[in-house]
From TrEMBL:
Comp. bias regions, Basic and acidic residues: 302-321
A Gene Ontology term for the protein's cellular component: membrane
Species this chain originates from: Pseudogemmobacter humi
Identification of the protein by name: Short chain dehydrogenase
Domain of life: Bacteria
One annotated GO biological process: acylglycerol catabolic process
Length: 328
């Protein structure tokens, strides 16, 4: 495991200064296109770890990637005891900055885990004109199922304990990649993609490598994720097309997440799609399949909007015709 796959070309870079002073790195991979997809990552990780997925998306989109605050390329900033409200507030600010800095486009979202949860909740509070949202296993327990909420909280507290004790420094990215490869969570991910994820997750200090997201921040994000259930009923207000992509319960290391997605589909009309033979990291395990789901859903949403616009124009013409007839 000694070679990182060729990275997509960064053709434009933007540093977004958020309303609290924190800065977020945003970059465009590949050429500008007529429609855009924005992607981000899960807790403790970084957008550059999803480059194979990004490359697959380039067939249909302009691809823009960003790291959540205190992750990836971003400097670490102080974190509140309850960090999620700030992560959530960042999403519409980043959306606006992308539109201003890279130009307005039809914009779709393709978000994994933590970033998918933040985007979904943000859309209930400060909605933005996403053309569609494809969300890969948003970790939000349904408030309508208290047993699932309790089970989720127990799991998250366990993840928080492990994250808090995580080793922060490494001699090389290969060292972290070997650790990833031993974990069942990363089963089915090609070795080059695991090394790519490890490299993206680390920061070069000049004297070695360290996790870009501080272990105590990652732990807090896990430990407090139960608060997201408080926004569950608000999802009924979301009007943009949403689909959730779920791992395969037969091989999943945390099958509870698939249940959450199915509950979202049943209660709010979101589309739910299963990625066969994958777990929570389906974008790394089957990037082409996942990219096809994003593109197909985006096309379907675009077709539906065109049909709706045509129907509206037809109704307007009919009203005008009836008005002229009455005038005669």
């Amino acid at each position: 495991m000694n070679r990182i796959a060729r990275q997509p070309e960064v053709t434009q870079r933007l540093t977004v200064k958020l309303s609290d002073g924190a800065e977020v790195s945003v970059r465009r991979w590949g050429p500008a296109r007529g429609r855009r997809v924005v992607l981000s990552h899960g807790n403790g990780l970084a957008a550059d770890g999803f480059q194979d997925f990004g490359r697959a998306l380039m067939q249909d989109f302009e691809v823009v990637a960003f790291d959540l605050r205190s992750h990836g390329e971003n400097a670490s900033v102080p974190q509140a005891d309850m960090p999620w409200p700030r992560y959530i507030a960042d999403i519409p600010e980043i959306f606006d900055a992308i539109a201003e800095g890279f130009g307005p486009r039809e914009t779709h979202g393709a978000f994994h885990s933590m970033s998918s949860a933040c985007t979904l909740v943000a859309q209930t509070k400060t909605p933005r004109p996403w053309a569609s949202l494809t969300l890969f296993e948003p970790p939000i327990a349904p408030a309508t199922e208290p047993g699932l909420v309790a089970e989720f909280n127990i799991i998250q507290h366990g993840l928080a304990e492990r994250a808090a004790g995580r080793r922060r420094s490494f001699e090389t990215p290969e060292e972290l990649a070997r650790s990833f490869a031993r974990a069942s969570t990363f089963a089915g991910i090609p070795p080059e993609a695991i090394l790519q994820l490890a490299r993206a997750t680390l920061r070069d200090t000049g004297a070695g490598w360290e996790l870009a997201c501080r272990p105590e921040h990652e732990a807090s994000n896990f430990d407090t994720a139960g608060m997201l259930s408080g926004h569950w009923h608000d999802f009924a207000r979301i009007t943009v097309p949403v689909q959730v992509i779920l791992g395969d319960v037969a091989v999943h290391d945390m099958p509870l997440l698939t249940r959450f997605g199915q509950e979202m589909a049943g209660q709010f009309g979101f589309r739910a799609v299963t990625c066969p033979g994958t777990n929570h990291f389906m974008q790394l395990q089957k990037p082409e399949f996942c990219a096809r789901q994003v593109a197909a859903f985006a096309q379907e949403a675009e077709t539906a909007r065109s049909r709706e616009a045509a129907d509206t124009n037809r109704e307007t013409r009919d009203e005008s015709t009836r008005g002229s007839a009455i005038g005669i």
